[in-house]
Amino acid sequence: MANIAVIGAGKWGQALHYALSQKQECLITSRTKRDIKNFVDLNTAMQCEYLVIAIPAQQIRQWLKENFSFKNQKVLVASKGIEASSGKFLNEIYEEFIPRENLGFISGPSFAAEVIQGLPCALVINSLNKSLFDEYEKFFPNFIKTYYSDDVIGAEICGAYKNVLAIASGICEGLNLGNNARASLISRGLVEMQRFGSHFGAKMETFIGLSGAGDLFLTASSELSRNFRVGLGLAKNRTLEEILEELGEVAEGVKTSYAINSLSQEHQIYTPIANEVFSILQGKNPIDSLKDLLRS
Ligand SMILES: NC(=O)C1=CN([C@@H]2O[C@H](COP(=O)(O)OP(=O)(O)OC[C@H]3O[C@@H](n4cnc5c(N)ncnc54)[C@H](O)[C@@H]3O)[C@@H](O)[C@H]2O)C=CC1
Ligand SMILES: O=C(CO)COP(=O)(O)O
């Protein structure tokens, strides 16, 4: 009987299910039935001791309220985002339902489209409980190298913030601003997300590792990133509605930019790039944003 299940059968849920099925049987469930091996209903999946949850950040609170009952499961959170309605980090939301020693968070550069082909990658499992890492590590296939970190808040902020910076980078690309501009944007973005993170207690080393620089460099330099593609569309003056409809998948950076904008105002943190992304999403002309960024 399988002891591990993935909840959410979007791009990332399916890729993790593929990876976690290499060494053992792994179940998968989702709101709508899918034609995937070992697809089960939610109740069956919930009987597993190990649950990997891969649903969009903005849906997590409601999903937990409606579906989750704690029976000592060990939960690995695969989402990357900050709740826009409250500015809460995912670990704060999950801790309302699950004790922190039963929680881990995945971070690092990992496009689902490559993981599902079995291409090599490295991931970080972040948890305050090292034994949760030890248990989960064994489930991962040989093509994924796993690292441990106890910097849960740092990994979460990196994973969420880089999506907003990927939108900025897509805009930069869409405006044909050149390689110099993009490199400057990415490196100043790294400094910005570290400044934001350190305010909330994140460790510096997290930002220069896989969860920070690693995931930022990946997402902010490839059209495989949904967030980067949102930026490309914005630079071409397409509406957000059009862009998201065509995307058909979640781009967490959109709602996360709302959360960062309010958190940075509330906590008086200097976050110029994220603020400009927020303004562009509210309708500001990207060229005006660029001028303001160069001046600030
Ligand atoms: N796709 C990727 O390469 C990676 C994605 N992630 C993160 O994983 C999370 C999920 O992303 P994807 O799977 O790529 O998105 P997706 O758009 O492909 O799929 C999202 C899935 O969530 C489900 N869902 C949506 N609303 C729900 C609700 N209210 N209750 C239950 N399920 C719901 C959808 O049915 C869908 O199966 C995001 O936070 C994303 O940032 C993290 C690393 C890599
Ligand atoms: O988080 C990701 C890769 O690590 C996926 O990024 P996108 O959601 O922008 O596609």
TrEMBL record:
Q: Where do the Glycerol-3-phosphate dehydrogenase NAD-dependent N-terminal domain residues begin and end? A: 32-131
Query: Where is NAD(+) bound in this sequence?
Result: 8-13, 112, 226
Q: What InterPro entries does the record point to?
A: 6-PGluconate_DH-like_C_sf (IPR008927), 6PGD_dom2 (IPR013328), G3P_DH_NAD-dep (IPR006168), G3P_DH_NAD-dep_C (IPR006109), G3P_DH_NAD-dep_N (IPR011128), NAD(P)-bd_dom_sf (IPR036291)
Record-annotated residues binding substrate? Answer: 80, 226-227
Q: Which residues bind NADPH?
A: 12, 31, 80, 112, 226, 250, 252
Q: Which GO terms describe its biological process?
A: carbohydrate metabolic process; glycerol-3-phosphate biosynthetic process; glycerol-3-phosphate catabolic process; glycerophospholipid metabolic process; phospholipid biosynthetic process
Positions annotated as active site in the UniProt record = 162
Sequence ranges assigned to domain Glycerol-3-phosphate dehydrogenase NAD-dependent C-terminal in this UniProt record: 151-289
Q: Could you name the Gene Ontology cellular component terms for this entry?
A: cytosol
Concerning Gene3D superfamilies, the annotation shows: N-(1-d-carboxylethyl)-l-norvaline Dehydrogenase, domain 2, NAD(P)-binding Rossmann-like Domain
Query: Keywords, A to Z?
Result: Cytoplasm, Lipid biosynthesis, Lipid metabolism, NAD, NADP, Nucleotide-binding, Oxidoreductase, Phospholipid biosynthesis, Phospholipid metabolism
Q: Which reaction equation describes what this protein catalyses?
A: sn-glycerol 3-phosphate + NADP(+) = dihydroxyacetone phosphate + NADPH + H(+); sn-glycerol 3-phosphate + NAD(+) = dihydroxyacetone phosphate + NADH + H(+)
Localisation per UniProt entry: Cytoplasm
- Domain of life, per lineage: Bacteria
Its EC number(s): 1.1.1.94
At which positions is sn-glycerol 3-phosphate bound?
80, 108, 110, 162, 215, 225-227
Recorded metabolic or biological pathway in which this protein acts: Membrane lipid metabolism; glycerophospholipid metabolism
What are the GO MF terms of this UniProt record?
glycerol-3-phosphate dehydrogenase [NAD(P)+] activity; NAD binding
What this protein is reported to do is described as: Catalyzes the reduction of the glycolytic intermediate dihydroxyacetone phosphate (DHAP) to sn-glycerol 3-phosphate (G3P), the key precursor for phospholipid synthesis.
Q: Name the family.
A: Belongs to the NAD-dependent glycerol-3-phosphate dehydrogenase family.
Q: Show the NCBIfam families listed in the entry.
A: PRK00094.1-2 (NF000940), PRK00094.1-4 (NF000942), PRK00094.2-1 (NF000943)
Q: State the name under which the record lists this protein.
A: Glycerol-3-phosphate dehydrogenase [NAD(P)+]
Name the source organism: Malaciobacter mytili LMG 24559
